[in-house]
Structures are given as C-alpha cells and as structure tokens.
Please model this.
Amino acid sequence: MGQAPSFVPAEAFTPALDTTHTVAVPPDGTPADNVQLLLTANLGSAGALAHYKQQGMQVQAWTDAPVEGSTPGQWAAYTFEAPAAAADADDADRNVDDNGKSSDFSLLGPDEGVEDPKPHVLRLRLPLRPDALGPGQAEVRFMLTYRLVHADGHVHWFGSHGHDVVCVLRKADPWLAVRRGWERAAPAEGDEPGVEVWEHKESSEGDTQFAQIRQTGNWGCWAVGDRSVHYHVAGSEVSDARYLLFIPRVHPTTFALHRPLILYAESGSLHLSSSGMLTCPPSSRIHVFRGRPVDGTRLHDDLDALSLRWLGEQDGFTLIASSEDSLPARIAFIPHLASPCDLLEPRLRTRWDGLEQSVFARPDAYRRYMLFCPASRQMLDYVAGVDYDVALRVGAAGGACVLSPIHALPVPDAADDRDADAAEDVAWEISILSAHAPQQKQPDVGPAAQEPQQEKETEEDETAELDLDLDSARSGIATTATMPPGSEALPAALLQTLVVLVQAAFLRMFFLLTPRFANLSVRPPRSTSATPSRAASDSNDEDRDASYSRDESPGPAADYTDTETLAGTEGPSDAASPRPARVLAFDIYEGPLELVYCRAGAGEGKGAELEMRLDGEPLALSAQAGWTLTVVEGAVRGGRLEAFLTDKREEFEGEGEV
Model:
C-alpha cells in the first residue's frame, strides 16, 4: 500500500476509519434495499476538487459489503461523485416564461441546507442487496476502507491494516418496537398486499401503547388528521392523526438511511408523545407500510372523510390541500405517501401552475394572492390569471405553504376639488396568513343615504310635536266649552280660549321660522357598507391598473372584497376633520395570528396611514418598505380584526397654510 497524499487527510471521510457501526436491517418479508449506506469525502475546497478532476484522480471506497449487484464475499471498488447542482443551467432557463415573469420560491426550512451540500463534498450511496441477511442469519459483518486512484492506475490507500471501518448488519426493526398485546393480523378484505396489520389482543380501557419509535438518527413526521396536515420534528407532541409518515433526515454524519414508515389507523387515531411513544385506542387496526406508498384510491377517500383534498401527484410529492372554503388555503407537499421518492436527491423543483384554481371554491373572487412559506419565511405576491412561472423548491422531507388573498385599501375619498380618480387608487394591501373569515357585509346606509332619512325623521318629529300641541289646544277648548255656562263664567271661558289659540299660533310660527340644526348635530360613528366600483368604461382604466400592479403584470384592478365604511362625525366642511375611513374586517379564529401588509404606490405621500386593531386593541405595525410580516406573540383567542386608513392630508395642508 502506498501513502496517501498529504493534502487529503484521513479524517475527511465519513464514516471515519477505525470505527464500528451497527445497522438495523428490516425483518423478514421486507426487502433490505430499504437500507442505503451513505459515505462522504470532504476534499476541503472547490480548488482541490478541480485539481482532482484535472489530474484524472478518483476517490473510492473499497469494501466487501453486500451491495446490490455484488456476490457474497466479493470485494469491489465504488467511486465517490460530486453532488448534482441544485439547479441546472437549463432548468434556470425554464424558470423564465415568454413574458419574463418568473420566480423561485423555497419551502426549505433553515435546518435543511444539508440537502444541498457543498460541491467539494463527494458522496457515495451503497444500496444493500435484498438478501443481505440470509434465512436464519441474525447478523452479517463487513469492512470498508478508502483509496485514491491516479490516472495511470497508481493507488494510494488511506489508513492501515486493522484500522478499517467495521459494519455489522443486524436483523431488527429500525423504526418500531411493538409493545406486548399486539399481534400481526391475518389479511382481511381491503387490506393492501405486503402491508403489516396489527391488532390488540388484550382487553384494556382507554388508549393503549402500540409501539416505541426506535430510529436513532434524525427524523421528521407528517401527521394527517381531521382538517389538519402538519410536519413535526422529532420530540414533538402529535395527537389525533389518521396517518403518520416518518421520514429519516439526512445529515452530514448519516451512515445508514432507512426508507420511510407510514402508519395508518383504520379506526380511531394515533398519538405520538415527545419521547416517541405511539398510543391509540385498543380497537384500532394499525396498518404499517414499510417503504411502500399508500394506494391512491384509499388515500383519496380518507382525505375526503377528513375534510382535506388530494390535489394529485407531482414529481413524487403528494399535494394535500385544506378544504376549499378555508382561508387561507394550506397546501402540503408530502413525499413517499402515494409514490416513491428519492430520499437523498429528491426532485427539488416543481412547478406552481395556477394552483389557486384548485384550492379555492371561488378563485375568481380574488385577483391577487400572497404565497407564504412558514418554514423559510419567504413570501411572493402575484396576480391570478397572468402567465407567471413559479418554481417551488421542495426538500427531501417535503414542505408546506400558505395561499391567501390580498385585500386592498384604497385612498380615502377625495374632496370635491380633488381628482375623483384618487378614490380608486390603492394605498395599502394586506393579507391574513392565519385562519380567518371575512365578515359579512352590512346593508348600505352610508352618509349619503342617511341625510334624507334623518331629515324625514326630523320633519315627522316636528309634525308630531305640533299635532300634540294642537290636540292640547283643542282639548282645552273642548274642556272650556263643557263648563257650565254662566253670566260670570262666559267672559273667562272666552278669554282662556283666546289665550290657547294665540299660544298655538305662536308655536306654529316658531317651528316654521326657527333654523333646523339637525344636520349639525354630532352623532356617534356607525359601521356601514360601501363597496366602490370602477367605471365600466374609462380611458384612464389602463393607467390606474398599471399604477396598481407593482410587478407590471397586466392584471385586474384592486380587490375591494369586504370593504366597509366608518361614518364619522358629520358637520360643516373643515380642513381639520378626518374623512370617513374604509375598513377591512375579519373574524380571526383562535390560534397564532400572522399577517403581511405593504404600502402601495397610491399611498405614497398622500397621508394615508394603515391602522389595525384586534378587538379594539391596536397592533404594532412597522414602517419599513415592501411587504412586512407581523406576528402576534402567543395564540390569540380570536375576535374581530379591523384594518383601516387614517387620512392626514388635510391636517398637513392646514399646517402648511398657517
């Protein structure tokens, strides 16, 4: 054996030389190719990798492992390779459509960077043979070492004799340690072939322990339940799940990679504790899918019963969406659930092609949408119906995103001496990323509609008061007329009648001549509905659309969905009086509250400032440019969320005049 070059340290390899590793191989009936061995060689820098390629050198593993395609006991060399680029050049070209509108959107969390390793870290993947452990064999032992092969065939070995990597394959369940009282059930009608079904044979009350998760490496879990689909990291509490999909996570030190595990509760639900203990009702039949996907028909029916929707398969990922009446829409990209997917090198890019048409019951009700990823905190606003290519980057464990409509708040109504088109310009945009529902609109009883009604009510009140006075006068006359006549009483009765008639006439003149102050009275604010609309045909429509669409997309005008008007104090024209403000109102459900907002072009320099209140309490908003994410700390109890503008243009103009 020759000595390795000094610029290639022996510690550059994983697993390291002179170490021993035990790998669990699934039990009988499960192919051993569910296990892959992962090896890495860190060359230190891109320059070292370029030197190796220029010199025609190869880094290899030399082993007698039961690798797929080899014979028992055979020693063979396997060459390390550089990882594929995260995005090929031609793929980048495909991300740009004919109109030049394109974007990359990541669903990767901050801990998923290892799935895009550095280019100078070489990798080698060795899938084991299905018969790695023969009948009656409890374990198999093999060794491996590393070497460097030059272009002329010269070999440099790393390490020395007796200091190789030792690996022990041991027959064991890599995922589950099933508890006592559970037994494999005989296949029943409707059970999928090759799937384990477990039943509890002992009587018990309440939930019972089914199994302990024994996976020693890093893993994550998708939980699918009633109206819920979420990804959880190891150590999380999961409850009320119909499906649990366990996915191993690849890290730089990962040596043995097992295929995912899917658990399905035919009746009842599964619960996972932070320690990895699985519990369920004792009457449950637990289906265990080892490296096998779930039948598409069964999955579609189960999701429908859980008020979820299966949007199909794309590049090995199952797309599951919330119910079509949910706001916002939540979409999960889950690998391995209904079709196999590569754990080490998944298809990182998939297309977003008008998915809003599939997730909303009335997609035409909204014109603009906000795409948001809770893991990466990346957001993207776009116009629906416009040719726009979005490439979603999804990791090996899948990902999830939120799609929510964008609501617009126009500039407050302009005064008579201002351009009327200013009322249609968009000042701010907001999008609610938490579960919510727009509040129902109320009948239109705005200020213009209130005045005639109030004048009518005032006239009716005045008429009623006058009628009452006249009735009193008539009553006085009638009473006087019924008095017993007498020579001495008659002049007094006539005098009293004349006094009453004079009083009635005076009251009549008072009501007719006194100015009406009804329109100057101060009334408390009232929440009413006023939905502005654009003119059907206007030569300035295209200009207004262009000013609204910040990405220069030829999309429709602003969305005025569920816009209300707060009718403020009415009085004579005063430059210091605020204009009525339009309000977006939403019912917020219990749980975390997240929302984004952005000042649009029409709001610049026009004094239209955004305010938001949750059950009357103001939210702290940021003044930074672009879309801003606001998260209310802790879970809110739900309530009414209002977003409205305060117009300070007259205040600024009044200060300027002074």
About this structure: Residues 447-481 form the longest helix (35 residues).
